[in-house]
Amino acid sequence: MPESGNDGANHSSRTSAGTITTQGQGANAQSSVPEAGIRENSEGNPFYPEVVDVESVSTDLSEERRTFADRLRDLIKRHRRDDDDDSVDCEVDQLVNSLDHYIVGYPKVAAFVNADPSFLIYRKFGWLHNRILLYLQDEIVALEYKLNKLDQGTFTDDKEVKLKSRRADFVNPGPRRDTVKQIAEKLKEYDEHLLRFQKIQAIRRPTMRNQTSLFNFIYGTQSIVASEARWIREGADLAAVAREEEHGWFNGFLEDTLKKISPRATQVIFRTKEQKIVTGQENVFLVSPFRLDVFLRIVLTILAAILLLLPVVILFELQPAEASQVRRKGGFQILTIFLFTLLFSASCSICTKARRQEVFTATAAYCAVLVVFLGCTLNTNAGQ
């Protein structure tokens, strides 16, 4: 869980990286960053950059001199650009503004929220939306009652022909025509609010981890007065604007675990040059989603291989050598299949966002593979 310090907050999240060039000057300038292609702007204004240093790229190397590492790095960069909807096709030096360049207050909070999609957290104002919808609903009910009374009055006055013909009824302005027009306008307003509120309510609630990170930064830097920062504590009414990640909470769990094991190593391996500049001197912990996703895929691949091969090895070792051992070892084999099938199903549910039917299908296939292997080993022993 992120913890706030005197000069900021310890935050955990992820963001993308790229070739970078920064600008700005001050006591918190990132002059200690040794990477080439990064230079501070002498004016120190992030909105009027005057110095842009062009970083040398791998295209300066001839195809004959390109190593396997160079080709692999370019392949990863292309794959990363393909996954980014906002990426461009050419190599461009990026202008990155540090949090140190923004004045303490709403400007710094806005810059922090913009630093990572996980921090895009805002209120839904569900109570206000419901209040408006209830009022509109009652106004329509009142108009509905009024229209019904007009219909009843027309029927009792022996003018029911107007109820059978819209042309005859609306040929001249009248109360029913005005009421229908009012109902149409109110229904349009009501439907717009209702559908818009449906989309807002579908936005997931932010994780406690991301909410705490934003809370620690706001209160740690004292960027917003307490009376105006209460909204960050409205957990049930908050909306996480960023799209949900594939592995969900498992990404955060893995990141927190790595940070507890070795924070410095985690920053060196999983933090990009862009993130180093963005965080500045603030006590903010950011990691690259691409690098973390690659590491997570490796972990899941190893876990999948273990879940598939380890029970096979155990079943092979538990093969009965004699007929007297079939009942005892057969029970252990069935228990092994049950435990590993349960572990596989739990792994699919926890480590992925697979739907229930997908988890059931994958678990059935996994169990079938183990049962087929068990049947083959039993048939082989019976034949011997």
In short:
The protein is mainly α. The chain has helices spanning 68-83, 106-115, 126-156, 161-164, 166-169, 175-202, 208-221, 249-261, 263-270, 273-279, 289-317, 326-351, 356-383, and strands spanning 12-14, 20-22, 94-96, 121-123, 238-240, 285-287. β2 (20-22), α1 and β3 (94-96) form a beta-alpha-beta unit.
Explained architecture:
It is built from 13 helices and 6 strands. With 384 residues, the chain is mainly α.
Count of alpha/pi helices: 13
Largest sheet, in brief, is: 2 strands, parallel
Q: What's the mean pLDDT score?
A: 76
Helix content: 55-70%
Give the low-confidence spans: 1-43, 48-61, 85-89
* N to C succession of SSEs: EEHEHEHHHHHEHHHEHHH
Order of strands, widest sheet? 1-6
Multimer state: single chain
Tell me how many strands there are: 6
Beginning-to-end CA distance, first to last residue: 59 Å
Instruction: Give the overall form.
Output: flat
CA-atom Rg in angstroms: 32 Å
Q: In terms of structural class, how would the helical and strand content be classed?
A: mainly alpha
Task: Record keyword descriptors for this entry.
two-stranded parallel ribbon; 384 residues; single chain; two-stranded parallel sheet
Summarize the helices and strands and which ones pair or pack.
Blueprint lengths: L11 E3 L5 E3 L45 H16 L10 E3 L9 H10 L5 E3 L2 H31 L4 H4 L1 H4 L5 H28 L5 H14 L16 E3 L8 H13 L1 H8 L2 H7 L5 E3 L1 H29 L8 H26 L4 H28 L1
Parallel strand pairs: 1-6, 2-3
Antiparallel strand pairs: 4-5
Helix pairs in contact: 3-6, 8-9, 11-12, 11-13, 12-13
